[in-house]
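BUG: 3D viewer hangs when loading the predicted structure for this chain

Environment: internal workstation, default settings.
Expected: structure renders.
Actual: progress bar stalls at 90%.

Input used:
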Amino acid sequence: MTRLNVNNARCAALFASGLRRSDAPTADELTSWISAAVRRFGVAGCVSRMAQEFGDHPEAAAYRMQWIRRLVGAPSATASLRRTEPAGQSAAPGLDPRSAQPAAYGARRAA
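Structure tokens produced before the viewer hung:
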């Protein structure tokens, strides 16, 4: 899995989390927000919540995603997020390593 796909999963998790701009999270706090969202909703659930928000409020969702991508792409965040990955594993939990899609997505399509 490419780094971009892992970052997509992280961004979806942050998008689905309750993180707000006013929280001004540190790089280490981002990992906590991501972990909490993935535990609560799963990666597929985070992606579903994000998609619903883009459908309901596309402009607001686009601004939120731009902000989240800047947070995740910041050098301090990148270093912090890499430290939390298990050794030898670059895929986010719940993602099919052959694609950027959540594992559940591929299972539904195959059915």
